[in-house]
Specification:
Oligomer: single chain
GO molecular function: hydrolase activity, hydrolyzing O-glycosyl compounds
Family: Belongs to the glycosyl hydrolase 3 family.
Strand order of the largest sheet: 2-7-6-5-3-4
Keywords: Hydrolase, Membrane, Transmembrane, Transmembrane helix
Protein name: Beta-glucosidase
CATH class of the largest domain: Alpha Beta
Number of strands: 33
Distance between the termini: 24 Å
Number of helices: 26
Helix content: 25-40%
Pfam family, one: Fn3-like
Structural class: alpha/beta
């Protein structure tokens, strides 16, 4: 039995050894596949620059002398964004609060503030300053009993919940019921009775939209529920001053507050790391509210016409992966205020029955609305026409007692003509065409504000008539207003309408002006202003009328008759043409000549990226540089672009690290270090401060330099199509113009510090539900005027060098494979110079984001961290594919050449690849474990060899041979599994061979030891 036990232990030792070795191999294989991502996670260096030249090659540097100074500034900017982005909705004089008061914070949100959102836009809450701290720092004494209630007491089990980054979980409010407030807690109200601040929280996140319809609570998610209303009632019963703060990411229904005795209401959005300091400055009067809403707040969040087509709808008969869902933008251009204000005007004009639409019961707070601690008066309004602009000027006087800023908003009304009706062109009653934010104006002082409105703002897209942009004949109105509704009333007043016509209040005709265009102009904007390229229809395949000629988008010519319904009741028997078109487009090999690769040009000699840092994108030298790259280098650069780009030795291109984070460079999804986290883009947009947006971008750039994170997957430019999109907090506004101006300013700031932006998600990714592969249908006018407008400004005004494609389809074609979007509009019309990266593409499930199709359409880089994924077979690496890879490589290299990844890299410098520390650690661990594995095996076999029988000696030899065979098998497995990957084969084939050799050597060694034992003890014989 003893001998049998020894044999079993020996066999077990061998098997465990083999298992450990195979496990190590698998671990090595996968870490090698995702090497770049692992390096990002551990913040590990993969290259170093050797530069013996004296030339200063730090092209982008910090504005601050040390890290502490920079950190202070970034924190101040975060606070400033909240200070200027928070919007005062109601105030009866309760705000600002006097200093040094004793106050009580109410609501579970006070202990669980919304600092950011979920997924890519999340915030590290460990670094965030809570409201208790900010208020106490401002001199207030905050009720500790209610704090304990939410932190540790009966209220601690109540917390709002949201969907995680993978779409799991649920959206729930979970406010603490008033029944959980103990007598001790209620008694504390008397000691901290100067004011109650009630916090209401809502958040969103990546991968799922907010829940529509009625929740189990009996209320909608974007509605104050019973527990919240009871909490406010309790506050009213116990405090003389009650302030409600909306720590929310989406517009919520606030009609219930009108029936409650609330003294002040303010929307504060999400707060970032230091936003609570900006908020406390507003509450105590050190600053005045100057933010304005970027969305319309309707009494009923479901009243937006887009809500009829929002959710998950199925294409019957489709079998294409991620191609079974669709969405129709039936509402057309009527998104947000463009619906609510237009239908209101039609009632006033008599084109719509007042019984069908009552603005005052529909809209609680219009787009652009916001109060201050003071009042402003406008005068001396004037509009001067120039060759290319309308120059709008107005005097703004502070007629109150508190210094503050004002936002001057300019809106335009275009004529809605018979030609428009005949050709299905829609016009909003007003659209934002310009704005400026004043300086701080002292009480009694004035500031003259001038807003320049380009004449290009007058163009409209005529899809079904001229197939290009036109300027209609008729009267155009330009008006200033405190918000969209105010401006419209001023236009209506100029047109001669009054309250007797159904206006809710009289407008001011002196704040509006009109200009006439005598004839329809179909030539001025038929060519791109940016490039001169001829503008024509590019999205006919995305128009639902292409498949259903009887379909009608929502039209102001017949509101009731065209009101949206859920298309095909949610289950669409789509025509075969559409289903067939979902298949990946086959790219024909049209390039006859073999592309030049891996060759140094005789005329120019060996070039490197640093030599071309200041060379224009159109210069042929870029093609000469790219021709130095081998096919393998081209392939690796284009395919493996997840959270960083690879280095290229032949052209001395540095590798980059790229990260998410619309609220600041974030480690949430990939690890490594965080940058500063700011209030999200919806709060930034609510500042209406272009200079602050640019400063925010610069702050991102500062972190980019400090963290050595060159690429920033932001800003996000999609539209708040409905109030329920899960990522509305990451996007600026329901309005494309405002989004574009703020986005362009952010891009300018970030790129000035060498951060590579990737404006996203391009395009029509305006919901999270089915964002992977969903087919979006909309008219060309809608696509261009609503959903591409923000992206266009970031390219034409800010020269963005990075774009991220969305994961949805436009019509039946994935956005990254849509030639009309990626080449004809983005590059040819807008003059874009840079790369387009896919959204997430690191898994096989994203097969519809085909490499060949995307490259042919104009996409450049795949957000993929798997070194093997998307690799084409040799026969698929056609001349056309290689040529497209060269174009893509040029786009990527050009953008990197303009980034801070070039810091330290002069024309004579050299990039040296280094093994990251984690790989060295893994190799050392591998070696140690191999040695440790062999020790017990060797000891077990040696013990067996001490036995004196031939049978046991033979058993020992057999076990040894089995072990050797298993070792060889492990080695052969490594070779077999990696034979199709040159990089993996080069790394693991030597390991496999080495393991086999070690086993063989060990066998020979043990045989020799056996013979030595025999010679020492001749009584042991071998028969």
């Amino acid at each position: 039995m003893k001998k049998t036990g020894m044999i079993c232990r020996c066999i077990m030792a061998c098997l465990v050894a083999i298992a450990i070795i195979v496990s190590l191999f698998i671990a090595n294989m996968y870490t090698n596949k995702y090497s770049s991502l692992v390096s990002v996670y551990f913040n590990a260096e993969t290259q170093k620059i050797i530069n013996d030249e004296e030339e200063d090659s730090n092209y982008f540097t910090s504005d601050y002398s040390n890290e502490a100074e920079m950190k202070r500034h970034l924190e101040e900017v975060g606070s400033k964004i909240e200070e200027e982005g928070a919007v005062l909705l109601e105030n009866n004089g309760a705000l600002p609060l006097e200093k040094n008061l004793k106050i009580t914070l109410l609501g579970q949100d006070s202990a669980d503030l919304v600092y950011g959102g979920g997924g890519a836009g999340s915030v590290d809450t460990e670094k965030a300053v809570d409201l208790y701290t900010a208020l106490e720092d401002a001199g207030y004494t905050v009720n500790p009993i209610t704090k304990q209630l939410y932190d540790e007491g009966e209220g601690s089990s109540y917390r709002k919940t949201v969907i995680d980054a993978y779409g799991n979980g649920e959206f729930a409010v979970n406010e603490v019921p008033v029944s959980e407030y103990t007598e001790e807690v209620k008694a504390s109200f008397a000691d901290y009775n100067d004011a109650a601040i009630v916090l209401i929280g809502r958040s969103g996140g990546e991968s799922a939209d907010l829940t529509t319809g009625v929740l189990p609570s009996g209320y909608k998610y974007l509605e104050l529920d019973e527990n919240e209303l009871n909490l406010i009632k309790m506050a009213n019963a116990n405090f003389d001053k009650v302030v409600v703060l909306l720590n929310t990411q989406n517009p919520i229904e606030l009609g219930a507050l009108t029936d409650l005795d609330v003294d002040a209401v303010a929307w504060i959005g999400a707060l970032g790391e230091t936003g609570t300091y900006g908020l406390s400055a507003l509450l105590d009067g050190d600053a005045s509210f100057s933010g304005r809403l970027v969305d319309t707040y309707a009494y009923d969040s479901m009243s937006a016409p887009a809500m009829a087509n929002f959710g998950s709808y199925t294409i019957n008969g489709s079998e294409e992966a991620f191609g079974t869902n669709y969405m129709v933008y039936s509402e057309g251009i009527y998104v947000g205020y463009k619906y609510y204000e237009t239908r209101y005007e039609d009632v006033v004009l008599g084109n719509e029955s007042a019984s069908n639409y009552d603005y005052n019961t529909m809209v609680q707070y219009p787009f652009g609305y916001g109060l201050s601690y003071t009042d402003f008066e406008y005068s001396n309004y004037a509009v001067q026409e120039t060759d290319s602009t309308y120059e709008v000027s107005v005097d703004v006087k502070n007629i109150g007692k508190v210094p503050s800023k004002e936002v001057v908003q300019v809106y335009m009304q275009s004529p809605y003509t018979d030609y428009d009706k005949e050709n299905a062109i829609e016009k909003s009653a007003v659209e934002l065409v310009g704005y400026e934010k004043t300086d701080v104006i002292a009480a009694g002082d004035s500031q003259t504000v001038t807003v320049s409105v380009p004449k290009e703002s007058m163009k409209v897209y005529d899809q079904y008539g001229n197939g290009t942009y036109i300027v209609d004949a008729g009267d155009y109105y330009f008006a200033v207003g405190k918000n969209s509704h105010d401006a419209l009333n001023n236009i209506l007043a100029l047109k001669g309408y009054s309250e007797s016509n159904g206006m809710d209040y009289a407008g001011n005709a002196s704040l509006a002006a009109s200009f006439n265009v005598a004839e329809l102009d179909a030539t001025t904007y038929a060519k791109s202003v940016a490039t001169g390229y001829e503008v024509s229809n590019q999205f006919e395949d995305a128009d639902i009328k292409h498949y259903d000629e009887d379909f009608k988008y929502l039209s102001r010519s017949n509101w009731s008759g065209t009101w949206p319904t859920t298309y095909a009741d949610g289950n669409w028997d789509a025509p075969k043409e559409l289903i067939d078109a979902e298949a990946i487009i086959k790219v024909e090999d049209t390039v006859e000549d073999t592309p030049v690769t891996g060759k140094i040009n005789d005329e120019y000699g060996k070039l490197n990226v640093a030599m071309l840092r200041d060379v224009d994108y159109s210069d042929p030298l870029w093609e000469v540089l790219i021709e130095q790259m081998s096919v393998t280098e081209l392939d690796n650069l284009v395919r493996v672009g997840g959270y960083g780009t690879v280095s290229v030795d032949s052209i001395q291109l540095p590798a980059t690290v790229d990260k998410d984070g619309t609220a600041g460079i974030s480690s949430t999804l990939v690890g490594g270090e965080n940058g500063m986290a700011y209030p999200p883009e919806i709060v930034l947009a609510s500042t209406w401060n272009k200079e602050l947006a640019e400063e925010f971008g610069k702050c991102i750039g500062e972190d980019s330099i400090a963290l050595k994170v060159a690429g920033w997957y932001a800003p996000a430019m999609n539209i708040h199509r409905t109030p329920y999109s899960g990522r509305n907090f990451e996007y600026y506004s329901e309005d494309g113009y405002l989004s574009g101006i703020m986005g362009a300013a952010t891009v300018n700031g970030a790129q000035s510090k060498g951060a590579m932006v990737t404006i996203k998600h391009f395009a029509l990714n305006d919901q999270e539900t089915n964002r992977m592969g969903v087919s979006i249908f909309a008219s060309e006018q809608v696509i261009r005027e609503i959903y591409l407008k923000a992206f266009e400004a970031a390219v034409t005004d800010a020269d963005a060098h990075g774009v991220m494609a969305s994961m949805n389809r436009i019509g039946s074609t994935w956005t990254g494979g849509h030639v009309g979007l990626m080449t004809n509009v983005l590059r040819n019309e807008w003059g874009y110079e840079g790369f387009v990266i896919t959204d997430q593409a690191s898994y096989n499930v994203f097969a519809y984001e085909d490499l060949r199709e995307g490259l042919a359409a104009g996409t450049s880089l795949w957000l993929n961290s798997d070194s093997e994924l998307w690799k084409l077979a040799d026969e698929d690496m056609t001349n056309t594919v290689i040529s497209n890879m060269q174009r893509a490589a040029k786009d990527i290299v050009f953008a990197i050449s303009r980034s801070n990844a070039m810091n330290g890299l002069s024309a004579g410098a050299k990039i040296v690849q280094i093994t990251p520390w984690w790989k060295i650690a893994l190799y050392v661990l591998f070696a140690i474990l191999v040695v440790l594995v062999f020790i017990p095996v060797a000891l077990s076999i040696l013990n067996l060899l001490k036995e004196d029988s031939k049978k046991r000696r033979c058993t020992s030899f057999i076990i040894d041979m089995v072990f050797t065979v298993l070792l060889f098998g492990a080695g052969l497995s490594m070779v077999f599994l990696t034979k199709d990957d040159a990089d993996l084969s080069a790394e693991f084939m030597p390991i496999g061979i080495t393991i086999g050799i070690i086993g063989l050597v060990l066998t020979v060694l043990l045989i020799i030891i056996s013979k030595i034992y025999k010679e020492k003890d001749p009584e042991i014989t071998v028969e």
